[in-house]
Amino acid sequence: MDAEFSWEKAQVGCPNCSELLTLRPGRTEVWCQRCEAGFEIREARSPSNPDRLVLLLAPKRAGG
Known about the structure:
Order of helices and strands: EEEEE
Shape: globular
Oligomer: single chain
Helix content: under 10%
Number of strands: 5
Distance between the termini: 22 Å
């Protein structure tokens, strides 16, 4: 992602159980201790507003 975007941390609910997860720059994955699920963190431009950065959580692949 471009260096023009800057963020310190973001807090989102786990897609499985709504436990609060803290995302930080440079991290590529996050683990939910409550439901014991791992997620990959991806950065993307917002489709509705390309000037905004959005963070996406994708289920972590087995073995990865």
